[in-house]
Amino acid sequence: MDQMKMDDMKNDHQKMSDMQNHMQSMNHDDMKMAHEMSSTGHQMKMDHGSMNMSGMDHGHMDMSNDMDMAGGDVMMHGGSMMHMGNLKVKFWVSVVLAIPVLLLAPIMGLNISIINLNAPLAVGIVIVLFDSALYFYGGMPFLKGAVAEIKDKSPEMMTLVTLGISVSYFYSLYAFVANNFLNPANHVMDFSFELATLILIMLLGHWIEMNALMGAGDALQKMAALLPKTAHLVTETGETKDVAVADLQVGQSFQVRSGESIPADGVITDGQSTVNESLVTGESAAVTKTVGDKVIGGATNNNGTLTVKISGTGDSGYLSQVMKMVQNAQQSKSKAEDKADLVAKYLFYAAFGVGIIAFFAWLPQGLATAMTIMVTVFVIACPHALGLAIPLVVSRSTSIGAQNGLLVRNRQAIEASQHVSHVLLDKTGTLTEGQFTVNALVPSKDVDEQTLLTRLAALESNSTHPLAQAIIAAAQAKGIKVEAAQSSQNIPGVGIAGEINGHQYMIVNGNYLTKQGIQFDQAVADKWAAKGNSVSFLLQDKQVQGMVAEGDTIKAGAKELISGLQKRGITPVMLTGDNQKAAEHVAGLLGLKEFHAGLLPNDKQKIVAEYQAKGNHVIMVGDGVNDAPSLAAANIGVAIGAGTDVAIDSADVILVKSEPSDILHFLDLAKITNRKMVQNLWWGAGYNIIAIPLAAGVLSFIGIILDPAVGAAVMAMSTVIVAINAMGLTGEKIKNE
Ligand SMILES: Nc1ncnc2c1ncn2[C@@H]1O[C@H](COP(=O)(O)OP(=O)(O)OP(=O)(O)O)[C@@H](O)[C@H]1O
Ligand SMILES: [Cu+]
Ligand SMILES: [Mg+2]
């Protein structure tokens, strides 16, 4: 799941929209669940624990089906999800079923019960009946979970719980038969009281867990709530009619009045207003929008009335893409999560091993005591909290990131950030605005300025490079009618070639001329480059017809980023396809010491590999097509939100606001996220280092022996602590850190 592509997202759009509709129509309780489902996985019809994330990569999501189980609760364990039935109902029914057992069954070790009836056989039968109901009804989620885990050859937490309740149940059955029929004189202790309390606490623990879970990823929920339910559709006759947002179609127009939310993506065809897109893009200020500007569904319209032509509705809209990306990021499995699974596995074997050893060690004290100890060990080790430890933190962290304009597409990026020593930054479009102005046109002899500019513009009209746009704008400003060149061809890292009136022309940089041994006025070119200009040359055959120098402006946050990285002990390095002199100029302005200029696209990738070969972990930040390979190759690829789709598809993290200093926010968020993960691993599993030996009775010589119910309570506590600790991760911290 590391390489999630936008395409996958698009395929799932239909289902996505189904889900949104469901989300909108569901009540609060179901909403939680829908959200958990959405944040956890594709294959929701899976049974307990049998799903692991790696298997989900190509899993087909069938949201509409899954949503039918809206009455059930779903929970996550170590990234896997299980359908636990409706835990709330299950818990309360089990409470009722447990009452007779709790009243009539002897309390462990005391051999007395709350109500003592002098009819042992009748009482025994009642207890066995209610035990069975509890075991098969209340215990079913755990039994199913265990079967799935064992089938999967990865016995984990459900297997542990099942061990605990099964041992209590079957031993109690045996006690009933033995005491009433086999050998009434030799009383066998029964475990019905423990069975009941255990199942109740387990169910309660999971139920609490579910409730704790719901707050974890509220960004998605908030995002889903951004879209209004109805829209004012503009009909063919020009009147407005209120329709459901789900019925809007691309090409239709709608009206948004002041104070309303915009129902879909589109282009303004009438009106002017300020629009607040903060919840969608993380951009805080209200932006003025007028005819021709794009608006995003989910943004709020402040003062004016706008008429908007739809370019993307619900499922194909920006908002659902963002939501989908958040979901995908939440699904992608991180290394820490593998660590959590591994810990769970070790925990199972440790608990199982210690439990068995303790059983035999305590056997001389009587079967009942040995059983109790073993059951307590099984129960205390139950790693529910562990299963939640990482997913809760990650989903919380991705949500916070999304609210701050950071889309973390690959969870691994969060952990990988701990080891980062170098941040490699593309220049144009990343550190600079990528909005050029033509500063100089220097025609060669026999060529006039007008002709030079006309030919440059003809070639560039086929290019999407930022340098191209400035040339076209300059030509248009001079009143030149730009006609596109024929059979044009991009030359990555060099320029562009094409045919004008049957002649071959090229736009190339100085490097190319030097390599080809073509003469040009180096002094003039250097003069402009030293001022930070990108310099390009027009070639007809092998003749230089002139030169164009274009300047760019440095982004506002670029300097802050460089000094922020240096403060964090990370070395910033600039990589650029631009010339050495221009690169030097920008590096000087930003206080950058390391940079590489004149790079071809695969040079950038090579440089990434070189840094890595020296044992460094690198972040690569870029925006262009020429950055895509290096983004994919870097330990963490970060794309600028305004960049090309190719770059975005290759990245692990996207800076929605296109603000380079957000990399600092990412690093800070990742840092506190990692800290929480480690804390949660200790709260979720580390406590067993003490708890398991304690449960096994190592302190029995000073009178400390834990009861199974105490074991269950400790387990549930740990789960709650982990959930609360994850909630403590807030967005404020990434701004102060
Ligand atoms: N369409 C074009 N018009 C003019 N020059 C171009 C064009 N495409 C590329 N070049 C030349 O090739 C160089 C490298 O281009 P490339 O796209 O690899 O890097 P860049 O985007 O300019 O810089 P950076 O790597 O910092 O983003 C440019 O600086 C320019 O000299
Ligand atoms: Cu548990
Ligand atoms: Mg670039």
TrEMBL record:
Residues 226-327 form the P-type ATPase A domain. Keywords: ATP-binding, Cell membrane, Copper, Copper transport, Ion transport, Magnesium, Membrane, Metal-binding, Nucleotide-binding, Phosphoprotein, Translocase, Transmembrane, Transmembrane helix, Transport. It catalyses: Cu(+)(in) + ATP + H2O = Cu(+)(out) + ADP + phosphate + H(+). It is found in: Cell membrane. It is a multi-pass membrane protein. The keyword Ribonucleoprotein does not apply. Its main location: membrane. Its EC number is 7.2.2.8. Pfam families: E1-E2_ATPase, Hydrolase. The chain crosses the membrane at residues 119-137, 158-177, 189-208, 342-363, 369-394, 681-706, 712-731. Belongs to the cation transport ATPase (P-type) (TC 3.A.3) family. Type IB subfamily. This is P-type Cu(+) transporter.
